[in-house]
Amino acid sequence: MGENFENSNFQEQSLGDYVLRSKLGESSLSTVWRAEHRTTGEVVALKQIPLAKLTRHLRNCLDCELTFLSSVNHPNIIRLLDFFEYEGSIILALEFCAGGNLASYIQHHGRVQECVAKRFMQQLGAGLKVLKQNHIVHRDLKPENILLSCSDCNPILKIADFGLSRILLPDESAETVCGSPLYMAPEILQFQRYDEKVDMWSVGAILFELLNGYPPFHGRSSVQMTVCPLRSFINTISYNFEVGAVCPSIVVAVHTRSPYLSVILFCLRILI
């Protein structure tokens, strides 16, 4: 289904108790629809995941996502309203966020003011605290996976798309290479073991993009992204006047060659 979503019969299509209204997005593993509950009329984002497309690793990630989202209720974490199996697919009914995602927001607004970046970082920090409390590592934090509750001037940010997440206890580490290269921590790109701190690196990259309107790294492939991402981050921050003006101590920190996590934590500490 999905190929006829724009024709005149589209509104008659449904998944379980939900009537499909429009397609919001599509990836190699899932399709997301704007839908309404047939009885209550509640508008939701319906994520359809064909089980046949899931490897054992991805199925484990999906189970982690369902368990985590079913157990939390926090304003900065996307709400899971329902989930069920339907004709060979797992269907997730998620809260509908009318503001779209942070990538679209940055594309439309460009770099944001310090006060906006601070507000957004506070919200992301609150969401990350919930992940840490539940021993969840997201592994794919990026602007496309952060949703905005509404399109007005004061949206609430929601961390979404936990499709690559997993439980990682304090004494454990992971080695699966996954995520989006522009926002992946160096140890993932370099095939090293890693822990939950990789999410902090991703948040730091998102913060940079908020302040500048573009991501801190550039490369045609993930191989190019493995070449000294910390050096790239340092150089880009050091020679960018706006970031230096907003957060001057960052430049001092990076020139001392502090570990990359210290740079990110210091950056967040200033804004929060």
UniProtKB/TrEMBL annotation:
Protein kinase domain span: 18-272
One Pfam family matching this protein: Pkinase
Example GO molecular function: ATP binding
Keyword set, alphabetical order: Kinase, Transferase
Annotated protein name in UniProt: Serine/threonine-protein kinase ATG1t isoform X3
SMART domains to which the protein is assigned, alphabetical: S_TKc (SM00220)
GO CC terms, sorted: autophagosome; cytosol; membrane; phagophore assembly site
GO biological process, alphabetically ordered: autophagosome assembly; regulation of autophagy
InterPro entries for this protein: Atg1-like, Kinase-like_dom_sf, Prot_kinase_dom, Ser/Thr_kinase_AS
